[in-house]
Amino acid sequence: MPGVKEKKLMRVFYLGKKYEEPLPLSYAEAVIEDKGIQGARLAEKDANKAGSFLGNTFELEEGVVPEDGDVVAKAKEALAAGQRFFLTDLEPDDLLAVADLPEAEDAIFMNIRSSATKLRQEECRQNVFHIAPDYAQRADAIAQYMIWKKWPRWFLIRRDTVEDQDYAEQVKRAAGRFGGKVVEDHLYNLPPGARNLDSGHQQIQKQMAEETQRAPEHDVVWVVNSDDDFGDYLAYRTYSPRPVVGTQGLQALAWDPSYTEYGAMRFQNALPKLANRNPVERDYLAWIAFRSLSDTLKNTGSVDPEEVKAYMLSDDFKLAAYKGQAMNFRDWDHQLRQPIILGGGPRVPVSTSPQEGFLHPKYVTDTLGFDKPESKCKFK
Amino acid sequence: MKRTNLAITCATTLFLGAAGVAHAETIFVSNEKDNTITVLDGDTMEVIKTIETARRPRGIILGPDFKELFVAAGDGDIIDVIDTNTLEITRQLESGPDPELMDVDPDGKIIYIANEDDSMVTIMDVASGDVLAEVPVGVEPEGMAVSPDNKYTAATSESTSMAHIIENASQQLVANVLVDSRPREAKWTKDGKELWVSSEVGGTVAVIDPETWEITKKITFEVPGVRPEQLQPVGMDFVKDGTLMMVPLGPSNRVAVIDTAKKEVVDYILVGQRPWHGEPSADGKSYYVANGLTNDMTIIDLDSLKATKSVPVGRLPWGVAVMPGKPGA
Question: Ranges for the YNCE-like beta-propeller domain (chain B) (predicted)?
Answer without folding.
Answer: 19-113
